[in-house]
Amino acid sequence: MIRITDRISIEERELEERFVRASGPGGQNVNKLSSAVQLRFDVRGSPSLSTDVRLRLERLAGRRLTRDGVLVIMAQRHRTQERNRQDALDRLKELIQAASIAPTPRRPTRPTRGSKERRLASKKNRSGIKNLRQDKPSLD
């Protein structure tokens, strides 16, 4: 079990790891070792997530989510497989933790009297500046 928060834990069998070759410069071992990790997590099919967390996670995932609802995290920052695996897992944990926090609803507020007056004064000032730019017909 991978513990995400107090209430959310994910079983390791829900995660799928693939090791691929990392892109970019690497030296002698770049064409021989598969050190990059592609971590796949089925968001829609996971029994560990509640519906509201699942929906927020899908929204947060963005382009990393496939059409089938699978979250794909690519980790290739480090030189070793183990560090890349840990990096991918940490990023998944961060995403799920962010999705587990419900956003606080916005309380509608009204502008203060002072802010209204300042806004109108600045509009009047801009209007005056623009009026000075206009060619006025002469009275001759």
Describe the structure.
This protein is of the alpha+beta class. Helix content is 37%, strand content 16%. Strands 3-4-5 form a 3-stranded antiparallel beta sheet, covered by helices on one side. Strand 1 and strand 2 form a beta hairpin. The radius of gyration is 27 Å and the shape is elongated.
Supply the key terms.
single chain; 140 residues; alpha+beta; two-stranded antiparallel ribbon; 3 helices; 5 strands; 37% helix; elongated
Reading the helices and strands in chain order gives EEEEHEHH
- Shape label: elongated
**Structural class determined from secondary elements:** alpha+beta
N-to-C span: 90 Å
**Topology, number of strands:** 5
Give a nutshell description of this structure.
The protein is an alpha+beta fold. The chain is built from 3 helices and 5 strands.
Q: Helices and strands in order, then pairings?
A:
Elements: E1 2-3, E2 9-10, E3 15-20, E4 36-42, H1 51-61, E5 70-75, H2 81-100, H3 113-133
Antiparallel strand pairs: 1-2, 3-4, 4-5
Helix pairs in contact: 1-2
